[in-house]
């Protein structure tokens, strides 16, 4: 009879804010090393925008609290870290925030904004006040789906404006990237 505690190892993805933007350049090899230093397993990266895939028996909120100070110490600046499990990521990618016909319109782009926690009703109200004919927003759990119609030029919404309305950090990825990451997770599971 073994007295060792059994752990379920979960596959996660960390969406990192401020990686390879705004003068903060980090090689993906270095990110993999930093995550490995924390004892995280099977560490890989996906494109050079701060998407790190790894395994761990720890809960996501525990991992966020471990990873953020480690990255701050190693890189010298704050790196907000937003972690989702493989199953959460699949649900995020599959969520229907806007009608397919709107997404298919020429010039339209869909982005997903990751948050640490679901916004309060007041924060939701402030975010939804940013909506225009060009920019539409949909909040679902700890994500904001941002539909930008007619290209970037006419848009008045930005990551900075969303963060200001929320009063908390966030990071944004193109929905295509999120879909590819979800498919990659599914293939590894």
Brief summary of the model shown:
The chain is built from 7 helices and 8 strands, in the order βαββαβααβαββαβα. It is an alpha+beta fold and 189 residues long.
Compressed to H and E, one letter per element, the order equals EHEEHEHHEHEEHEH
Largest sheet: 4 strands, antiparallel
Cα-to-Cα separation, first versus last residue = 29 Å
Flag low-confidence runs.
none
Mean pLDDT: 92
What class, by secondary structure content? alpha+beta
Strand order of the largest sheet: 2-3-1-4
Identify the CATH class of the largest domain: Alpha Beta
Compute the number of strand runs.
8
Q: The CATH topology of the largest domain, please?
A: Alpha-Beta Plaits
Helix content bin: 25-40%
The portion of residues forming beta strands comes to 15-25%
Q: Rough shape?
A: globular
- Which architecture of the largest domain per CATH? 2-Layer Sandwich
* Count of the domains: 2
Determine the number of helices (DSSP H or I, runs of at least 4 residues). 7
In angstroms, what is the radius of gyration?
17 Å
